[in-house]
Structure formats: C-alpha cells, structure tokens
Amino acid sequence: MNTDVRAAAARVVAAVLGGTSLNRVLPGKLKEVSERDRALLQQLSYGTLRQGPRLDAILKQLLDKPLRDKDRDIRGLLLCGLYQLDSTRVPDHAAVAATVDATRALKKHWAKGMTNAVLRRYLREREQLTEALDQAAAACHPTWLFQTILKQWPTAAAGIIDANNQQPPMTLRVNLNQVSRGDYLAGLEGLGIAAKASSLSNHAIQLATPIDVWDLPGFSSGTVSVQDEAAQMAALLLQAQAGERVLDACAAPGGKACHILELQPQLGELVAMDIDTLRLQKVSDNLTRLGLTATLMTGDAIEPPASLAAASFDRILVDAPCSASGVIRRHPDVKLLRRESDIALLADQQLRILQGLWPLLKSGGSLRYATCSIIDEENSQVLQRFLTAQSDAVPSSLEMPGSGTVTVGHQLLPSAGGTDGLFYATLKKAK
Ligand SMILES: C[S@@+](CC[C@H](N)C(=O)[O-])C[C@H]1O[C@@H](n2cnc3c(N)ncnc32)[C@H](O)[C@@H]1O
C-alpha cells in the first residue's frame, strides 16, 4: 500500500532530526509512495530541510511546549506543513487540510487539532513570527554555521549563504574518451535539453534543469557522469601519468576515482580504498558502468592495510571525510545534522588520515588533499598542523583555472548557479 506523501516526508525530516542522513533515509521512503508522489516527496524533503533552521525557529514560537522525542514525526510534519505554506503553489487551505490529514497516516490522531491550530495560526501571524527571527534563522542557517561563515568569509558570506539556500545545478562530466564536450552539447541541444559548457572544468556541462540520469544520452554506456565542476578538479589537478600507481584513499562512491581513470587510460594501477564496504560497492557499480578497472579495497586510511607497502604510490588523493559545509545546497540535511563540536573532531581525523597515508607515498611523489568544506579548521589549518611535524612534506603550488597558480591550498566557494565549495591543496614528498 502506498504511504501518504506528507506522512512520508514527515518521517524523512524526522529521521534527519534524529541524526540520520537524507541519503540514507530518502531512497527507502521514495519506494513507499506512489510513482506520481515521488517528485513531491523529494521536493518536500529537500525544501523543508533547506529551510530547516528557519522553519524550526518559527515552529518553536508556535508551540506552547516542545514536542517529545517520540513525536519527532509530528515535528517533521509541522515543518513540512510550514514549508508548503511558504514555498509551494499548493493553495493554503489544501496544504493545511492535507497536512492535518497526514496525522492519521502517522497514527497520531491526537495531533490532528494541534496541527490544524499551529498551521492556521501561522497563516494569521506569519509577519510577526517572521520578524521575530534572528539573523541566522532568517537566513535558514544554524547559528554556529552562520557565524562561522560570516567570520571566515566576511566579504563572500552573503553569496555563500544564498548558494546554500538554492537548488544546485545538475552538472555533467563528459567522458572525452568517447565524445568531445562540444559534440555532446550539440546532441543535448538536438534532444531539446538546454545546457551550457561550464568554465572551471573543461569536461563539465551544466544543465538548465535537472533531469533523470537515465534520460541522458549515453549515461548507461559511460559517456557522461553526474559530478559537480569543483569535484571534477580533483582528477584534473592530480595529473596522474602513464604507468603510475595511484591511491584514492577515501574513494566511495567513486566519482573522482572514475575521473582519474578516464583521464589517464594508461595508468599503472588505481587502488580505490574506503573504510565503508557498503559505499565501496558504489565505486564498483560506477566502474562497471564506465567500463573501467581499479583495485578495490576496504581499509582505514588512518591505519592503512599492511598489503599497501610503504613508498609504493606515485600519487595519493585524500578526499577526506569532512563537515560537507561546502556542499550544503546538495546536502541540505547538513544544516540540521552538523554540530559546531564536530569540526574539531573532523580536523583531528583529517590530520590522522594524512599522517597514516604519508608513509605510502614515494619520495618525489605528490599528495592532493581535498575536502568539500569551506571551514578553515578542516583545510589550511589541518595542513599547517601536518606540515609542522612532517619535515619531508613540502607544500606545492597548483594551477587552478581562473585563480592562476596558488600555493598550499585553494578554496572554491559555493555560489548560486556556480560550483560547490571544495578545498584543494598539494603536498610533495621531498626526495
Ligand atoms: C568525501 S567522501 C569521498 C568521495 C569520493 N572521493 C568521490 O569522489 O566519490 C569521503 C569518504 O571517506 C570515507 N572515509 C571516512 N573515513 C575514512 C578512513 N579513515 N579511511 C578511509 N576512508 C574513510 C567515507 O566512507 C567516504 O566514502
């Protein structure tokens, strides 16, 4: 039986409020609703989470007392209800009625009257309730993140915050072994799919409107992959040469690993490692679709498997686990999941990963460090801590299109209609 779409969205939001990532919860819920409700479930989930901190601050004003943890689904439902009243074309009375109705599907009959009262009061008092919000909530960000962005990026903050609140563009990576970017663009045009070449990566195409990947010509045979332009820079900056042995130490789901192989078909070996065996399966799926080969390995970069010999890699890519503060527009659940206290823990983990991998690099070899974070503690500061203790590590410059040559590290900032916010740096091992 198909689940009520608003009840499903409420459960998605509730799961995120409870600490589960959107990527983990949404796919299962999409299967529970009818096919015609899937787009709406997606919109309600992403939209509500994107505005989560703002909607939650409004909801707090509307509730006499906080809801109990066991009623997180009702909190999720009320947040989805507020989102619909503000940001969808569903007429107010229909949005209220459908949201109230979803209490039945959630088997929370007691919440029917309260849901109705809360949403109706919002319609009556929207202006005052919105005016009472602090700056961070009004900007749909948790306070700690809002303040961090303002402090670290004073002149770019408004653009970053705006980008974090937008739907991201769908960007493709063209496999130049199969087709030129110009020819692929012409093919899209012929099919009436509006798209343009992107400027940062010369492999990238941005679609005017997101579409189902299976509707992309050549997707199943590996002609294109979906990958943000900023992420495409990892393989482009790595510049792996023919015959080299390369380690992608945090490889899953494999976007960058596949791009490395596409760019250098004569590579000696690519070892794609990840700590998460389940996620490693996605690397395998991607390699299969693209007809590429790599050595897959479950392993912890902090204490690499003994089978990886010391000084055996020419290049290492460390796409480190991070706060994802640079890809919030793609992962709006980050706004509700991340805590300020996570940042120091992540920075320590990133440092230990660098320290664990460094012995695997040949002398004269190079390591590219990347994160999808815009928070300095996870980026330059990790490198500085690493360099202080590692005398044979030398920061090296990298060629970043549009920014010229940059030393130690370069931050791409998220921008509306532009790229994700990724950080890149290069370290060379002294000979
Ligand atoms: C940012 S994602 C990598 C994305 C990937 N490079 C791509 O382009 O598709 C970070 C990955 O690091 C993995 N990871 C986290 N801690 C790790 C560790 N100690 N050793 C190896 N992998 C780790 C996570 O499982 C996750 O898949």
- Percent helix, as a range, is 40-55%
Number of strands: 13
Bound molecules: S-adenosylmethionine
Mean pLDDT, to the nearest integer, reads 96
Major β-sheet profile: 9 strands, mixed
Q: Unreliable stretches, pLDDT < 50, 5 or more residues? A: none
Q: Indicate the overall shape.
A: globular
Radius of gyration: 23 Å
Beta-strand portion reads 15-25%
- What structural class do helix, strand and pairing data support? alpha/beta
Amino-to-carboxy terminus distance: 65 Å
Order of helices and strands: HHHHHHHHHHEHEEEHEHEHEEHHEHEEEE
**Helix segment tally:** 17
Which features would summarize this protein structure in a list?
binds S-adenosylmethionine; globular; alpha/beta; 13 strands; 4-stranded antiparallel beta sheet; 17 helices
Summary of the model, kept short:
The chain has 431 residues and is of the alpha/beta class. It has helices at residues 5-17, 22-32, 38-50, 52-62, 72-87, 92-105, 111-131, 135-138, 143-152, 157-164, 181-190, 229-238, 255-263, 277-290, 334-337, 342-357, 380-389, and strands spanning 170-174, 195-197, 204-207, 224-226, 245-248, 269-274, 295-298, 313-319, 361-371, 393-400, 404-407, 409-411, 423-429. It is globular, with a radius of gyration of 23 Å.
Question: What would you say this structure looks like, in words?
Answer:
By secondary structure, this protein is of the alpha/beta class. Helix content is 45%, strand content 16%. It has 17 helices and 13 strands. The protein has helices at residues 5-17, 22-32, 38-50, 52-62, 72-87, 92-105, 111-131, 135-138, 143-152, 157-164, 181-190, 229-238, 255-263, 277-290, 334-337, 342-357, 380-389, and strands at residues 170-174, 195-197, 204-207, 224-226, 245-248, 269-274, 295-298, 313-319, 361-371, 393-400, 404-407, 409-411, 423-429. Strands 5, 6, 7, 8, 9, 10, 11, 12 and 13 form a nine-stranded mixed beta sheet that branches. Strands 2-3-1-4 form a four-stranded antiparallel beta sheet, with helices on one face. Strand 2 and strand 3 (204-207) form a beta hairpin. It is globular. The mean pLDDT is 96.
